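User: My advisor asked me to double-check a structure prediction for Lipoprotein LpqB-like beta-propeller protein before group meeting. I don't want to rely on an old file, so could you generate it fresh from this sequence?
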Amino acid sequence: MTAADRRRAAGALAGAAAVALVLGACASMPDHGAVMESTVQVDTAREIAFNVQGPAVDADPEQLVQSFVSVAQFAPANASTANVAREYVLPSAWSGWDRTSRVLVLSQYPEWETGVVDDEATTATVTGQAQVVATVDEIGVYTELPEPSPVDVSFELSRAAGGQWRISGLDDGLLVLANFLGDSFHRTTLSYPTPDREWWVPDVRWFPEQSWRTAATREILAGPPADLAHSTISVVPDGTTLALDAVTVDDSGVIEVSVTSPIGGASAEDRALLVAQLSETLRDREGRSVVLSEGTSPLATQSVTEPSRPLTVGDALALVEVDGATVLRRVVGRELTDTAQAYVLDGLDPTALGVAPDDGTVVVRDGTDRLVRVSGEAPVELLVGDGLASPSVDRFGTVWTADSAAVRAVLPDGGTLEVDGDWTDARHARSVAVSPEGARIAVVLDGPAGPETWVAAVQRDADDAPTGLSEAVRVGAPVAGVTSAAWFEESTLLLLGRDPDGADALYLAGIGGLAGAGGGESRQYTAPTGVTQVTSGVGGGSPPLVVDADGTLQVRQSAALWPSVSEDVVAVTYPG
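Assistant: Sure, here is a fresh prediction for Lipoprotein LpqB-like beta-propeller protein from the sequence you gave:
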């Protein structure tokens, strides 16, 4: 048997598991009706019995390792699959293996190599090079790499009872094919309240499927991560931990969370908000409600006004050329309508605009170096700078932009601030976009190899004025030539970049990894050709809008249907 034959034989196990996965998912597929497109992730892992098997009799070292990798990637999904994976490994090696200390997300299985192993050998080493497209760390943080990165992996093997090869040494961590990441790890959205308790701020993690609620609860009790620490709050008293090392769901869908005694120091309002926070995070799938207990004693909680999930509030506005003048129009469905009030744009050269949520402040970029606030009266100058980015207006009325040196904010009272983080490093920002809840900002910066998209939390003072940006995370790292980023879903950006052929193209990129099939990786988003501008909103009522080089505005109705709304459009934006 050749090396290629051995790889095909050993790799068949992964194919069998994939078949089981597909069959499990088909049970809930529609079998009639019109073709539909969806970005919803189908949850199937709990219904899947993975078709995995233990070591084949007389498998050689290379076959054994390939089969183990194929099985072990599903071990986080359920205990029975983990027990099958255990059969490949000697007990001493299994007990010392920390499989979730890091997860390497692979584009394909490694090509395995083994030195000469004669019939009398008692040890062997199998090596390979994995092409890693993303990683998941020990607390579930997903990082997409700019391009596949080679990582050397190796396994030590020994002959066990009966002369059968077993793994005696392996590196900590897990190898998972990208297409199977969502079957072994649950994409979990942790929710933290903003300081005014009005909005949830999402924080996407990937936890082992069989214990995701327990892992998520630990993170909630520990408080917001460092990058959100100054943009969100914790209502959990210090020292509060899980009293039982498991969060369970009973047959009626009640999620039982038992915590330690420091919870007694929380106010009734804070306890109620914690229950709401846990419910928002944990009730995916069969979960219905949360019961919080101190030890074995259920805690009474009062009703509370729950924060809202991030949502774009208000219609998009467009700058349109009509009879030689530029006017503002509201985008409603497939039509442009008059705005509630007239806006004076006389004497301006409008090239971009921003609008606050719920018909708030409207700001126009005049040429490329000036921002003005427009209304029914004469425009008011807000900021002058070199090569200003299109403005973004947050829910507090602060106007965001950037010039060749810094990210800048204009406060409602007209004061201006330089709002940077260490990661901006005085690089030119091409695009800024504040999230609907105002706690995060997406910035496209020039990098050494081209534009880079980053998301950071916005730090504010007691008056909601921005004071700085947290440490940022890179988003959509493989997407080339990005010129702008728009909020598409609460943890997803719509990027205007370039495809492999160099043409303008739209991409979806997840903050913490994209939902759906594909292992969290960024993916191209079907759109018309020649797009030069894009805007989108968070929530079903804010479909993406694009403008091409000819000024034609189109709205997305489906992947293949982008009807025209208007011609002669200069710019368009949703609130935010």
